[in-house]
Amino acid sequence: MLDRRQILAALGTSALVALAPSVLFAAASIKPDDASALLVIDVQNCFLPGGSLAVKEGEQVVPVINKMAKAFANVVMTQDWHTPGHISFASVHSGKKPFETVDLPYGKQVLWPDHCVQGTDGASLSKDLAIPHAELIIRKGFHKDVDSYSAFLEADGKTSTGLAGYLKGRKIKRVFVAGLATDFCVAWTALDARKAGFEVYVVEDACRGIDTQGSLAKAWADMAKAGVKRIQSADITVGA
């Protein structure tokens, strides 16, 4: 599917207008079916305004996700679910500050403020999410010595959350990813979903990024290279 920004950059405004009837209207016609699932990633209090790792404008994804979720029979939600003193917290690394990096046995790790600690209000899903038909919550990052951005695999690249098996058991073929944050948990989820063989869409206006040291641009580039499709929520048909 062509991305509006790609079309605009390549062809210019006048060409875009000429193509609108055949391209843009065709783009706004994705109708989720029983083989489609929406993955709502980490819309938790710690990542919302007032949280310890608040993502700028993070609260704005909630109404978009709520509306979009009505189009999906299958919805899975995720939660960061860290132990106290988790290895990804800057507070456990002497002399280190949030957003610095360290080398760990599984690779380079960005260090974060303490966040989404098990059982705390910060780890709770936003009270404004309204998706009563969501059938599964995947908790990740609960192993103290390894982080887990992706809903599919922990940061060691081999420890599975079980999500791929669940989706395949439900005969899901394509997944739509939304939530927080674009350049970390959303992107890693999308990339691992591609590796697992799913057709993958990231809903840009239903996500927000952290963007530390160019991470947002890199995430979009990595996703594009992997064949992840970048869409808007308006491209999804909601209702009959």
Supply the key terms.
alpha/beta, Rossmann fold, two-stranded antiparallel sheet, 5 helices, globular, EC 3.5.1.19
Gist of the model:
The protein is of the alpha/beta class. The chain has five helices and eight strands; from the N terminus they run αβαββββαβαβαβ.
Describe the protein in words:
- It is a single chain.
- By secondary structure, the chain is an alpha/beta fold.
- It has a domain at 36-82 and 115-137 and 147-170 and 182-192 and 218-235: Rossmann fold.
- Helices cover 28% and strands 19% of the residues.
- The protein has helices at residues 4-27, 61-69, 163-169, 182-195, 215-226; strands at residues 36-41, 75-80, 101-104, 107-110, 136-140, 174-180, 199-208, 229-231.
- The strands form 2 sheets. It has a 6-stranded parallel sheet with strand order 5-2-1-6-7-8. The chain has a two-stranded antiparallel sheet with strand order 3-4.
- The model is unreliable at 1-27 (pLDDT under 50).
